[in-house]
Amino acid sequence: MRSNNRDITAPCFVLGINEGMLGLFGIAILLVTAVVWSARGPNVEKTDFVLTYVGAHIVHDGSGARLYDIKFQKQVRDSLFQHPNPLFYEHPPFEALFLSPLAALPFRTAYLLWGLLNVVVWLAVIIFMRPYFPCPKEDLGYLLLWVLFAPLAVALYQGQSSLILLALYAVAFVKLQHHEEFSAGLWLGLGLFKFQFVLPFALIFLLRKRWRFLEGFAASSLLLTLISLLAVGWKGIVNYVRFLLAISGNPQNLSYGSAVDMPTLYGFVYALVGRRIGHMELNFVVMVLSILLIGFIAWYWESHDEHDSNALMFASGVSAALLTGLHMFTHDFSPLALGLFIALANSPKRKHRELRWTLTATVVLFWTVPIYFLFVAWHCLYLLCPVLLLFAFSTLLASKYVGRQAPTEVECVTAG
User: Fold this and answer.
1) Is the dihedral of CA 126, 152, 198, 112 positive or negative?
2) Which of 149, 199, 336, 375 could form a disulfide with 381 if both were Cys (CB 3.0 to 4.6 A apart)?
3) What integer pLDDT is reported at residue 244 of this predicted model?
């Protein structure tokens, strides 16, 4: 499995016994063991899956209209668990409906099944994306980087849906590489269970006037809206909007997720000046910065739309979508894995030394495992916002040079 970075049709892992297949098998055993161990561990009720289970339980019991009633959520949560985290279910109604069958099972069994599904998704993405990510050239190195990207492990342990979002972004990326924009938009629209990281990316395509992508996105969005209505009704939808407004209006509330624990523009601005300006002023500043960032990337992408550089533009777009999402934690970095692998495979020639070093530094930093856990412990995850912003602009600028290089000149990122 040694493919050139322009060969996007090569097979992923060659059938038969080789180091890639053995490594993949070893990772599968590791991940399954981790899920089983977590499901049987004493801290499973401290995971985010508790919130998902509560939401699924409410819909499963036929109380969907009260899904976003905070008092009712707390009542259900406290009736199911002894010492849960003081957080609330905040995902869209259709997710709770899709996962409601899990509420018919004991919590630990539901956690185990959901975790095993996420393992399958993780492994599928690793295999599916190999032809598009030729760096590292060695199979074991490629596999190791997937395991070392800490947000994926956090998403698996917490029982979050971030790995599903990663998979949907991966499919959208492949579809765009093959110029299937309607299909790309359709698949990405299914990621609206984390709409804060999908809508900004769709906005880039709106500003670029890529109507086929938007038609696909609108189709899946309409379907999920109808399913949400089925789950909670109009009253539930109205309550969900009020619930989201309550979250955005309380950036210091740990039950909604503290803003300083979010590596977004919102979290960064709040950490710097949030305690000195009002809520309206804070939202206005963040809105302006978000529009400027999304607008610039859309303009640059459309102005430099060359096939060879589209992958790096995609990486920049994903970074911007994460930056402008109002609600983000460690596991939400999961789609960034695509951007990091794209950057590895599309480094500018060594003559662009400053850009090459900047890109390398940001990639290495995001692959440094302890950073995430230390920043979470110190409540300063917002400090990763400037790093993510730097990565977004580095990939954007690199696309300009990579698009002009001959295929033999494009290198994997190294520190050299």
Assistant:
1) positive
2) 375
3) 86
